[in-house]
Amino acid sequence: MAKLNHINVLLNNQPQTMAIEEIFDPIAYPQLQAVTGKVSADFANQYLADYIKVDLVLGSLPSATNFSANETLTKDALLTALLTVANKDAAKLFQALSSTVQLNALAGIFRVLISPTQAIYSRFYLMYNPSTDQKRVVLGSFDLTEAAFDPAYNRFEEVMVFDSEELFDQLSAHFTKDLLPTTKAYFTDELLAAAEAQLKALKQDQDAQGQKVVIFSNEETDQIVQAELTNLLVKNVQKQIDADLISADTPLAMRNVTMDRTREREAEERLIQQRDMMLQLEKEAVSPRAEQPSLRSADQVAKKVKAALAEAISPEDLAVEKKYTTFLYDRPIERNVAKNITGLYIPSDTGQYPIPFGKLATVEQIKSGLQQIDAVMNGYQQYVVDYDDNYGKRFFEAILYGFTAPFMWEIRTKASLNPEDGNDVPNFLILGATAGSGKSTLLRIINQLTWGNENSMIDFGTIYPNETPQRKAKTVQALESYMKQGSTYPVLVDEIEPYFFQQPQYSRHLVVDTMNELVNSPKAIATLIGTTNYNGSFSMVRETARRTYYIQLDKVINDERKEEATQYIFDVRQSLNNTLFKDFVVRMAHRLADDDTNWRTFDATNGQLDFLAITRDIFKEYYRMAKMSVPAYVSDGLCDDFRESSRNKWAKLYLTQMDDFVFRSENNSLVFDITKLNSFNGFSNESAEEYRNSLPIEICVDGINGKSGKFLEMKADDFFNWISIKPELTAITHENGTTKVTTKVADEKPKKKKGFWARLFG
């Protein structure tokens, strides 16, 4: 076997053979400052015991996860520190140290530190002799374990030794100024106090014969762990907030740390399965019967590999995977607006290579594209019962979202001042519609106007057959998989079943966790445009609603003109193409490349971030170019249908069930028993949760506590403002001395709310 140079040592840039005791020489350099990933007790006992001063910071192991800043703190540094404490790693290390090193630790000569709020990937070692002023720096990939310096291990390590005063001074200043303030003692006061108590007891015990070794009992370490976890979560974090070393928003990030835990757990489980598969392949690559183990032939191994990959996905899951057929890749790094190259790519007809997507249209082609959309809108105008311009805006909004969808992840990064802002640019558009409203046709039209055909639609109910075990969960997993194919073309899903929105384990898993992933780690994940049946009682859990653009299509096609309407829209769809969309993506690419583009436009009516504002501007530019007037169905801002639907739901409930709202004078609040919304009183079994979900948390007394449990408690003034009802509060005193306060709706018609307060309360 060829001899490899596993331990590559350079001394002042020259190859050198050096033993560990030569690199770490406590006689020549009696003081050590270091940042390392790990220190073993054996290494410390043998090579660090004779130093007169050691400050050792334990850094982090590099993470394969692309964490955001908050996640690095909460899911990397702090979580690692908590797990270290919970696993009693410090106590295990301390009692494995020699009595000499233990005494050095008690005397403050041997200090080990960790940073509970910073991921430290640095690795450097600073040695100093105060008598001779000699200074040495060691850089490298190694940790303080004997294995790191053993060439028999199949690992490469770099050890670069520099006798450089300038480099030493720079790194020592960095160590003292930047790293140390973020650290805390690894051997905590509680641990050292327990060790000191043992030594004191040993000193008084004649049978101990001068022994000074500390060994903790389980009871002692349990008590130490409890105190250390408490201090980590409270004192250490707060101390660093007070010192302005970490953000004051850290507690919020800590509170939200489990929001996407389901997704993370599934990823960890997949990783375990993948490792098991690869380990099995390793095993099967070797002949089991050979006296001297040897590798199988390439043909034999190839069969094993093929069989393993076939087992990894069932035929049923493979069929589901193939239902996703539309791929549009967004690669901003390849964008060249000078040549009108958008950075979007589609597969070639053979699927063997990508080809650029996007092409500027002529004015006539732009005009034709606008006329195609206008023909679609005229169909809704003619055949939808009680159609008006305000209602027509909802159809057009859906088309605008479809045009913008491939760039939504980029717009989110441009419009966000901080990660939390990313939730204002939803990755989900839901069309809540009654049967016969034309919602499925609208989805097909969006597909035709952007992709050029209608073959991309996926029927939610048929993703998996009805008899499939865990069908609901697997359906949501399939949608997640579609969104993460690398394509940014929207996933078009028809007839999403109501359970998806009403049961948190489904909507939260897909909507909330996906949005959390996007805002923390921006990447090209496809949007989802879906339809669902609106039956007058549609609801979403609050977290889902906040991250979803909901448009309500609650008017139907006139039954008496159904045949005429069907023929009309069929004829219109024959002429639809995606020429305008190809032009649009070029113009949007120009806006994305322009640093002066204002991505933070807010709706004047409801105060929401208008993530479609640039799209509206481009379309208005189209109308100017085509010398066409801007139609009435082109909106100046976002629709706010979920909030309006929720407001109407509660306004009707109050007007019809007024006596069930009990006024609580000491809190100026209304208390409502939500269990009254039951089938006995004419409500559906899901009504209670539908009403609870649609109640804004900001109008509840004590926030989320006000909308939990049997009794909902709402701030009276805010509630009445929200439902646009001005009550008269009348106190009635009964003969027995009790007082009941009732409400009576005033005759005065409420004024229409405008501006910021309308957003806050409705």
Write up what this structure looks like:
The protein has 762 residues and is of the alpha/beta class. Helices cover 43% and strands 14% of the residues. The chain is built from 27 helices and 22 strands. The strands form five sheets. It has a nine-stranded mixed β-sheet. A five-stranded parallel β-sheet has the order 14-15-16-13-17, with helices on both faces. The longest helix is centred in the first third of the chain and has 25 residues, at 218-242. It is globular, with a radius of gyration of 33 Å. The termini are far apart. InterPro entries: P-loop_NTPase.
Keywords:
4 domains, Rossmann fold, globular, alpha/beta, five-stranded parallel sheet, nine-stranded mixed sheet, Endonuclease, Chain A, 762 residues, 27 helices, 22 strands
Oligomer: single chain
State the fourth-level CATH superfamily of the largest domain.
Answer: P-loop containing nucleotide triphosphate hydrolases
Lateral arrangement of strands in the main beta sheet: 2-1-8-7-6-3-4-5-9
Cα end-to-end separation: 75 Å
Gyration radius, rounded? 33 Å
